Amino acid sequence: MPLPTVAAVVLSQGTRPVELAKALETLLAQTGVDLDVLVVGNAWEPTGLPDGVRTHHEPDNLGIPEGRNVGARLSHGDYILFYDDDAWLPEPDTLARMVAVMESDPHLAIVQPRPTDPDGKPGPRRWVPRLDARSAERGGDTVVFWEGVHLERRTAFEQVGGWPGHFFYGHEGIDLAMRLLDAGWRITYAPGIVVHHPALPASRHAVFYRMNARNRVWVARRNLPHPLDWKYVAIWVLITVARVHDREALGIWFEGLREGWTTDPGPRHPISWRTVARMTALGRPPII
């Protein structure tokens, strides 16, 4: 019987050579799958990579979602592993186990494993695809997912148009998840499958606060029916004001919010009220 085919897309700017080397070493050690490993150099010419790794150079930084779109188009496999360049797989059957979960149900579009920090540091809230971040060991269907390491069914990914490339950074996974759910696909969290990733704050990125706000508005304007679109944004304004105490950072966030309302978010295809009800039943109504 032929092995399942997996395209592994690794996006890198070449700034973490040690981490990238470990990411690729543990990826190439995977068993039970037929791998096509592609490193997309985002404003970086990939060099010095091991045998078995294909490369593609983009002269400009396309951002995370569009860089991943490029990798998906240039790679081959029924499933696509999107894989951060500072992540690594602790066991040689990690990927095969993710594929086994995916193949257990033809309606699954995404399988997210459980990320853990290799040094034992507590993980950020965004690693757990539930409102209650304490439930890291509870698996099952979700309405969001962590983008850092996850497996996607190519047919589902292509059906809904892939990542929103113009987002550049932030909330592209929420946008993709809403479109997948509205198309009838499932997303599952498999905490029994562990991957490693350093626990780092998303706010370390210079563009974090502006794009966090802008893209939050774009998600609403693109995907949510009225009046949920403005309610979603209003609730996140309240959450952000409560969480962010740095006045300068908050000012940048509100500038991003204004940008989100005054710029083109891309095509609008509101999810159905049936999808709204499904998301609510799964514990995360699309107003938060």
Automatic annotation (TrEMBL):
Gene3D superfamilies: Spore Coat Polysaccharide Biosynthesis Protein SpsA, Chain A. GO terms for molecular function: glycosyltransferase activity. It comes from the Bacteria. Pfam families: Glycos_transf_2 (PF00535). Signal peptide: none annotated. InterPro entries: Glyco_trans_2-like (IPR001173), Nucleotide-diphossugar_trans (IPR029044). Keywords: Glycosyltransferase, Transferase. Pathway: Cell wall biogenesis; cell wall polysaccharide biosynthesis. Residues 20-160 form the Glycosyltransferase 2-like domain. Belongs to the glycosyltransferase 2 family. This is Glycosyltransferase.
